[in-house]
Design brief:
This protein is mainly beta. The protein has one domain: Cupredoxins -  blue copper proteins (Immunoglobulin-like). About 15% of the residues lie in helices and about 45% in strands. Strands 2-1-4-7 form a 4-stranded mixed sheet, with no helix packed on it. A 3-stranded mixed sheet has the order 3-9-8, with no helix packed on it. Strands 5-6 form a two-stranded antiparallel ribbon. It is globular, with a radius of gyration of 16 Å.
């Protein structure tokens, strides 16, 4: 019985990380904030961000350090693929007018 419980728990953990793209990290936007305020990735490894606009109005996803500037219409999902070469902390934000002032920022942490 205990072994069955461990198997179910392990399966649940594995399924938690599933998305449309294997290895994709989801960043969702809702009510003028990012649900994931911090995203951790590894330097030198390709990153796939699945950016989801859950609102009924436009947003954008921007990371200046990687020249990422992607507008998203209401309820749109976009995949952004890039490879961060250098470790560091990089701000991501919504570039729609007034959204940064409302607090729509987050942190991409690139680790060695």
């Amino acid at each position: 019985m205990m072994r069955a419980l461990w198997c179910v728990a392990a399966l649940a953990l594995l399924l938690t990380g599933c998305s449309d793209s294997p290895g994709a990290l989801t960043v969702a936007m809702k009510d003028m904030h990012f649900r994931q305020g911090e995203v951790h990735v590894r330097a030198g490894q390709q990153v796939t961000l699945r950016v989801v606009n859950e609102d009924g109005y436009a947003h954008a996803f921007d990371i200046d350090a990687f020249a990422i500037h992607r507008p998203l219409v209401a309820h749109e999902t976009a995949e952004i693929i890039f490879t961060p070469e250098a470790a560091g902390q990089y701000t991501f934000y919504c570039g729609s007018p007034g959204h940064v002032a409302a607090g729509m920022t987050g942190l991409l942490i690139v680790e060695e």
